[in-house]
Amino acid sequence: MKRSTNHWISRALFVAFIFASMTSTAFSSSFALEQNVEDLKARANASAIHESDLPSNVFAAEMIRPLLSELIERSVTFRRQCSKVRNAPLLHIAIELVPSLAYDHCLAVSLVTRYAYGRIDIRMLITVPRAPSSYAEIIGHEFEHALEQIEGLDLRTLASTSGSCVYRHADGSFETKRAHEAGLAVAREFELFRNSSHGAGAANSADGQK
């Protein structure tokens, strides 16, 4: 609040001056608050749009991109994974659909290449399954492996550590309980969303027939 140093100002004028200053400040604060609220709304909207998109450092086969968009919409676990991938600019993921793999025990494999300057390239090779929920589980599983790479987990060391829940197959590939559970979570959320949407649609259809 402004204060006058001129003691000769009359009491009435001084009070009026203070009142005017307070009013001016209040309006300024109100305007600033409105501006801040509008800015926050705009940022939230931009963030929501941004979060609904596939991260720019993920490159996927065209035929699977619609499913990835559905996963982002339906699965909170997959949105969390995408957010972390998006915030790792040195990570680059390429998702490819293949008819088969050399690894007999799995439906997908992530091939990781690390560079000295920090870049991580991951090729996710996914065999074509029979149902969308199978894709959901596989993609959620492989994206969790990508997060393990972002975090710098030493899977080779962990695989030889008791209780780490990291396992090494005979062919040299690794598996983690964490990725297994993430895949199941994404598939479950995908199915729950789809079932609830179908249930709501059926209810609306029944209401329309009354």
Number of helices, where a helix is a run of at least 4 consecutive DSSP H or I residues: 6
Strand content: 15-25%
Sheet bearing the most strands, described? 4 strands, mixed
Series of secondary-structure elements, N-terminal to C-terminal: HEHHEEEHHEEH
Mean pLDDT: 78
Number of domains: 2
Distance between the termini: 66 Å
Alpha-beta content class: alpha/beta
Uncertain stretches: 1-34, 40-49
Tally of extended strands? Answer: 6
Residues in helices, as a percent range: 55-70%
Strand order of the largest sheet: 1-2-4-3
Q: What would the principal axes of the Cα set say about the shape?
A: globular
- Radius of gyration from the alpha-carbon trace, in angstroms: 28 Å
Summarize the structure in words.
Residues 1-34 and 40-49 have low confidence and may be disordered. The protein folds into 2 domains: 12-51; 55-199. The chain is built from 6 helices and 6 strands, in the order αβααβββααββα. It is α/β, with parallel strands linked by helices and 210 residues long. The longest helix is centred in the first third of the chain and has 41 residues, at 11-51. The strands form 2 sheets. Strands 1-2-4-3 form a 4-stranded mixed β-sheet, covered by helices on one side. A two-stranded antiparallel ribbon has the order 5-6. Helix content is 57%, strand content 15%. It has helices at residues 11-51, 65-74, 76-86, 132-150, 155-159, 177-209; strands at residues 58-60, 91-98, 108-114, 120-127, 166-168, 174-176.
